[in-house]
Amino acid sequence: MRHGPPIHARIEADLRRAIAEGRWGVGSRIPSEDELRQSYGVSRMTVRQALERLANAGLLVKRQGVGTFVASEKIERVASRLLGFHEDALAHGLVPETRVLSVTVEQVGKEDGRALGLTERTEVLRVKRLRSADGEPIGLNTITVVPEFARDLSDLDYTRSFYEGVAERLRLSVGEAAQSVEAVDGGAGAAELLQVPANRPLLCVTRVTYLSDGRLLGLTRSLYRGDRYYLSLRVRRSEPVMAG
Q1: Cα of 72 vs its chain's centroid, Å
Q2: What's the confidence (pLDDT) of residue 135?
Q3: What is the predicted pLDDT for the residue at 2?
Q4: Does a structural domain hold residue 2?
C-alpha cells in the first residue's frame, strides 16, 4: 500500500507554497498553532514540527507571545568588503537602528586579550550595542578599543557608524581587518534581545581591526541571527605554477 508524505511535511509544503505565492507577504502573521491544528485535524506537536522546520529554513520567525511571521529577506554581508552594519543595511534598502546598551572601561579578558596581544587585565574601552533593521533586532555588537585610542573614542555617538566616527575623530580610516566566522550559542541574554529561541545558534563574526596607518584599533564581535543574516565570499583559484 502506498503512503503519502507525513502530515507535518504536507503542512510544511502548504505553508511554503503560500509564502512563495505571496498569499502571506513579508512580515505577515500566519495562522496560529491552534488555527492550523484545527484546520488540518492534527496535534499541536505536528503543527509545531512543521513551523520549526520553516523557521530553521529562515522562512518564518517566531516572536514570543506575539505569533509567527513571514521572515524578511536575509541581509547579505560580503565578507571580502570591510563594511559596517549601517552600510550593509542601507545597501539592502533597510532602515538601520542602533541602541547602545553600555559603554564601559573594563579588563579585556583572556580571549580578547589573546586576539589583541594584550594581557588579560589590560583596561580597554568596551561598547555593547543592539542592531536592528526596519525595527527588527538583527545583531548584538561588541566593540573593544585598545588603550591607545580608548580615551579619544570614549564619547563617540555609538548610535552611528563606528567606522565613520573613528574617521572623524582620529582623522584616519579603518584600513583592514582579520575576520573569523563561527556558529555559537549566544546564551539566554543574547537570545532574549534578538528575540530568538535560547537554543538557536547565532552567527559570530569577529574582526581585529587596523587603522589605515597600520596601528591596531581593536576588535569587534557581532552575534547575528542566522535567519536574517548570511555571509558571502567570492574566492579565486590561483593559476598553477608550471615547473620549468
Answers
A1: 13
A2: 81
A3: 44
A4: no
Residue 243 lies in a domain: no
| Stated pTM of the model | 0.64
Residue where a domain terminates, one of 70, 93, 120: 70
Residue type, 162: F
Distance CA 227, CA 138 (A): 9
Residues 6+ apart with CB under 8 A from 38: none
Residue 1: what pLDDT?
A: 40
Q: CA 88, CA 75: separation in Å to the nearest integer?
A: 7
- Please give the Cα distance from 17 to 9 (Å, whole number): 12
Assess whether 154 and 188 both reside in one domain.
yes
Query: ∠ at Cα 238 (234, 241), nearest 5°?
Result: 175
CA atoms of 225 and 232, how far apart (whole Å)? 15
**pLDDT value of residue 85:** 67
In a domain, 90, yes or no: yes
Domain end position, chosen among 55, 70, 85: 70
What residues make up the domain containing 16? 7-70
Which of the residues in the chain have pLDDT under 70? 1-5, 56-58, 64, 72-94, 228-244
| CATH at residue 60 | 1.10.10.10
Count how many domains the chain has.
2
Sign of the CA dihedral with 197 first, then 200, 203, and 204 last: positive
Longest dimension (CA), the chain: 75
Q: What is the pLDDT of residue 74?
A: 54
For residue 134, the number of C-alpha atoms closer than 13 Å in the C-beta half-sphere is 14
